[in-house]
Write a structure and sequence with these properties.
The structure holds two protein chains of two kinds. By secondary structure, chain A is mostly helical. Chain A is built from 49 helices and seven strands. Chain B is built from one helix and four strands, in the order βββαβ. Classes of the chains: A mainly alpha, B alpha+beta.
Chain lengths: 888, 88
């Protein structure tokens, strides 16, 4: 990792440079059309970066500079650096992209880049995004992101990259379209005239023209070769002799010239250069730490003055680096002197970086130096920060670089691998690494070292202290996923016992599992309390999205308790909080809308339900957890059924069933049972009968989880006019049991079915008595569709009942519903359609804002809403989608 | 070619011996025509690409890359440069 900030600025040059206007003149000035990509591709040391800086310094173009390093092969890291570089160029840009990268559990590159495009599009004048040293990127993820970047850039933005190898992008496509401007090795080669200017004017060597020509020939116009040659010639009393000897040698130019340069230095400077060549970035104190000297600062300044291949990284003369090629040559010479010495240099550098709170650099040096224990200590310190920044790739590489037996004796490292296994869904691997972590914790003799930055140490010690509780949380996760209820409860209880009062994540996760277990066991009051506590802890742990998303479960539990009104207010409150959270919609906002829609259908507010469903659709999958994806179809089915479209309801339930992911939540309302209820209402009893036998539903036996199944079977028997006495007895039993356990939802449902059974037996009084109980219990908290969905038989009963609550239910059936509009036109407001039409034109963002008499910020808000509603990331895609939906 | 093989790489100029470690441990031979030949066994093509990237990064000009006819004695043992065995 480079010195913070220095990656993001155009490299400084305090030296005088050779004018290269024959090349810079070919590059765009910003006043005319800009190519999409400027590619400077040539070997190391050809002067690529210098050319780019000369071009950008001369023009009047906004420049976002990013010096890439190997760590940028990590997509998240690359995106963060890219956004930061644009923010340096234009401070008003990048806040949203940064928030996306920080907040979202899995931010997609496309979303981050799209947000950047929106803002770049709104800037006046051209912008160049310079990616220096692109060849260091070896990850396809980043290559794909850059392809997306190039394909979707706003027209006034250009990407310029320097590279030693042509990047795996669709260059021929850009070339064919005239969108690519290339500068290659042959272009960069110094001409004899340029070499003369450099050697004689800039370096003041006063060489004869044939000697200049000889140097140009021998170095093949290679910038670094000419520069080294000039330094060598300047350091000798006989420049002519030097040129002749060099020209006559076959030796590799770099070897020949670096030897010459080193030979011209005093011995202490020579050993300083070699020892510090292991460092990527140089500052006085760091150099002192590895050389054991105290004159690092003076030497670095002297090296800069004598042009000895140090590149300044700041204006304060604090940080430099060696020119990459020069460093390569020094490292090769140093390594030839023996690995032990090199190892010690890296060891000392690692210590220095750890003391200065730059752990990733410390780890890199410790690994390079081969001290695996030092490296493992440092990785342990770095884990919390790396996980927070989600730099998974670097973590993986570090752990791969450590010997397995070292990792196996480090509980924190084993735990990290367990976590990595979990995030890949590998439960067996997770189990194995949990065993390793526990064994390592038991056999650990000494406490971890007390060196390193204090905050990282505190985070590590905290992780170590909660490790036994975390192991139990993970074990509960495995048990839950495997459907082992007893195991889930046992591990979750142990985790909760082991947790300290402030271990909010452990407390939240363990209470969550215990709440789900209580729910599955039918103890809904306990489930509600425990799960409520879980949500509180998860919010306290800082996870707002999941904390709010847990309201979906709390609302389901409230429904189980027969309290639609409570479910509704919980969800409405959660949605209010979600809407107050800045940035993009949370990953659980859509689920909250869906859950609320379902409650609203039950209460008879069909138009309100529909509008929430449309919002959920517009928010898309990004605002929905994978375990909840089926619920939108369940809610849709309820709405369709309420509107009398029973075939549509069955189709929606079939879609729901395809998306159900078992193992997350207790299956209290199985989709097949809901489907069978619709079939019964349609009179398609054979279909429902098939369901009953396929699922082996037994009227007389079952647990709480089977209640919906049994009450569905009871409906089938009523429709078949079969075993009606059994139905009456069973529904009475359920009403009693469920009533005692606080499961009001089942109580109401059971009374409804009992009323229908009595009616089928022509026992009017008993039917009205049962209905009376159902209404007393169900109408005040808002049940309506539960009665109405039973159709004509129930309507007749309600009319016969004649009471106030029955009338309230009947009123819900005839309530005047506004006619549903088609979802597409509902999605966009008139203003948004207006904006969309302008987006389809060639106008730039600022021009559109001007035309609409709004600020750029307002325009951006409109486009953001349009993109969200159309579920697209870019202007182009929005226009395409709008055309498909005939919105333009 | 996915397995081990012996490669022969020629570059312009006489490279110093100390580059060998940086370049896959290949043996360095200087030729009379002013080129250098790098020869030796490499585990697979991934390692070959690593060596080529190394040459690129020191600015050495590539002349040719070839495969040497294989003698049994040159084939590295199966245990040579195994992938890390941790299985993660």
């Amino acid at each position: 990792m480079a010195v913070p900030g220095t990656k993001l600025r155009v490299p400084l040059s305090r030296r005088r440079l050779v004018d290269r206007s024959r090349l810079t003149d070919r590059l765009p000035t910003g006043r005319g059309p800009m190519p999409r990509l400027v590619l400077v591709a040539a070997p190391a040391g050809s002067g690529k970066t210098t050319l780019l800086t000369q071009w950008l310094a001369a023009g009047d173009v906004r420049t976002a500079w990013l010096s890439l390093d190997a760590a940028d092969a990590d997509l998240r890291r690359f995106l963060a650096d890219l956004v930061a570089s644009v923010s340096v160029a234009s401070p008003e840009v990048g806040a949203e992209a940064t928030a996306l990268l920080e907040d979202e559990r899995t931010a997609r590159a496309e979303d981050v880049l799209a947000s950047l495009f929106d803002e770049l599009d709104a800037l006046p004048g051209p912008t160049v995004i310079a990616l220096d040293d692109f060849h260091v990127i070896d990850g396809t993820e980043v290559h794909e992101a850059v392809t997306f970047l190039l394909d979707n850039l706003p027209p006034q933005v250009t990407v310029a990259m320097t590279t030693r190898a042509d990047p795996p992008l669709a260059l021929s496509r850009f070339r064919a379209r005239g969108e690519l401007l290339e500068v290659r090795a042959a272009d960069l080669r110094f001409t004899t005239a340029e070499a003369t200017t450099f050697l004689n004017d800039v370096m003041g060597l006063g060489l004869e023209s044939h000697h200049v020509a000889a140097l140009e020939r021998r170095t093949e116009g290679w910038a670094t070769g000419l520069q080294l040659a000039a330094l060598s010639a300047a350091g000798t009393v006989d420049p002519d002799g030097f040129v002749e000897a060099f020209a006559g040698s076959h030796r590799f130019v770099l070897d020949y010239l670096v030897d010459e340069v080193l030979a011209g230095q005093p011995a202490d400077v020579r050993s300083f250069l070699l020892d510090t060549s292991v460092l990527d970035d140089l500052c006085g104190p760091l150099c002192d730490a590895v050389t054991g000297r105290s004159d690092g600062q003076q030497l670095l300044e002297a090296l800069e003055r004598s042009n000895l291949f140090v590149v300044p990284l700041d204006d304060e003369r604090q940080w430099w680096r060696y020119h990459h090629l020069f460093a390569e040559a020094l490292v090769a010479r140093l390594a030839a002197g023996g690995t032990e010495h090199v190892g010690r240099l890296h060891h000392d550098a690692a210590d220095w970086y750890a003391e200065h709170d730059r752990l990733p650099d410390a780890v890199r040096h410790a690994l390079a130096g081969g001290d695996v224990d030092q490296a493992a200590d440092l990785v342990e310190l770095a884990v919390p920060g790396m996980r927070q920044r989600r730099e998974d790739r670097a973590m993986r590489e570090w752990l791969r670089a450590l010997p397995e037996d070292v990792v196996r004796h480090r509980p924190l490292l084993a735990m990290h691998l367990a976590w990595a296994r979990l995030s890949e869904g590998d439960l067996d691997g997770l189990d194995r690494w949990l065993d390793v972590a526990e064994a390592a914790l038991e056999s650990q003799e000494a406490p971890p070292p007390s060196t390193g930055p204090a905050t990282a140490r505190a985070a590590r010690d905290q992780d170590l202290a909660t490790l036994p509780a975390m192991v139990e949380v993970y074990r509960a996760t495995v048990a839950q996923a495997r459907g082992d209820v007893a195991g889930t409860t046992a591990h979750a209880s142990r985790a909760r016992d082991l947790a300290g009062p402030d271990d909010h994540f452990v407390l939240g996760a363990s209470s969550g599992y215990l709440g789900l277990a209580a729910w599955a066991a039918g103890d809904l009051a306990d489930a509600a309390d425990t799960f409520n506590e879980a949500a509180r802890h998860i919010r306290a742990a800082g996870n707002i999205a999941d904390g709010l998303g847990m309201t979906v479960v709390l609302a389901s539990i409230a429904l189980g308790r027969g309290r639609p009104d409570e479910a509704r207010s919980l969800l409405e409150h959660a949605l209010e909080t979600a809407e107050l959270t800045p940035g993009r919609p949370l990953s659980t906002t859509g689920d909250l809308h869906v859950a609320l829609a379902e409650v609203l259908v039950e209460q008879g507010s069909l138009a309100g339900a529909e509008s929430h469903l449309q919002t959920a659709v517009a928010l898309g999958e990004r605002a929905s957890l994978i375990e909840n994806r089926h619920r939108i179809h369940v809610a849709r089915a309820a709405l369709l059924r309420a509107r009398g479209d029973l075939d549509g309801a069955v189709a929606a339930l079939d879609q729901a069933q395809a998306l159900v992911l078992p193992g997350y939540f207790p299956d209290v309302r199985p989709v097949p049972a809901l489907r069978a209820r619709v079939r019964i209402a349609q009179g398609r009893l054979d279909d429902a009968r098939e369901w009953a036998s396929e699922h082996r539903v037994d009227l007389d036996h079952g647990t709480y989880l089977g209640e919906v199944d049994r009450l569905t079977l009871a409906r089938l028997l009523v429709a078949e006019a079969d075993r009606l006495d059994d139905v009456v007895a069973m529904t009475e039993r359920i009403a009693t049991d469920a009533g005692a356990a606080g499961r009001g939802g089942s109580v109401v449902d059971a009374h409804v079915v009992r009323a229908l059974a009595h009616r089928a037996m022509s026992d009017r009084d008993a039917a009205l008595a049962a209905l009376g109980k159902a209404l007393d219990r169900g109408v005040p908290p808002g049940y309506r569709r539960l009665y109405l969905d039973e159709g004509a038989a129930m309507v007749a009963l309600l009319e016969a009942h004649g009471g106030e609550s029955g009338a309230a239910v009947l009123a819900a059936a005839t309530r005047d519903e506004p006619a549903p509009r088609s979802p597409q036109t509902e999605v966009l407001s008139e203003r948004e359609v207006e904006v969309l039409r302008l987006l389809a034109t060639e106008l730039t963002g600022p021009e559109i804002a001007q035309r609409l008499y709004v600020s750029l910020n307002t325009l951006r808000t409109h486009t953001r809403h349009i993109f969200a509603k159309l579920d697209v990331n870019t202007r182009r895609a929005a226009v395409r989608r709008a055309a498909e939906r005939e919105l333009l | 070619m996915t397995g081990p093989a012996t490669y022969e790489i020629r570059v312009a100029g006489h490279l110093d011996d100390h580059w060998s470690d940086r370049l896959g441990g290949l043996a360095i031979t200087h030729n009379a025509d002013g080129t250098t030949t790098l020869t030796g066994p490499l585990a697979d093509q991934a390692e070959l690409y690593g060596v080529l990237a190394g040459l690129r990064d020191i600015g050495a000009a590539l002349r040719s890359v070839g495969l040497m006819p294989l003698a049994d004695a040159d084939v590295p043992g199966a245990s040579w440069r195994e992938e890390p065995g941790q299985g993660w």
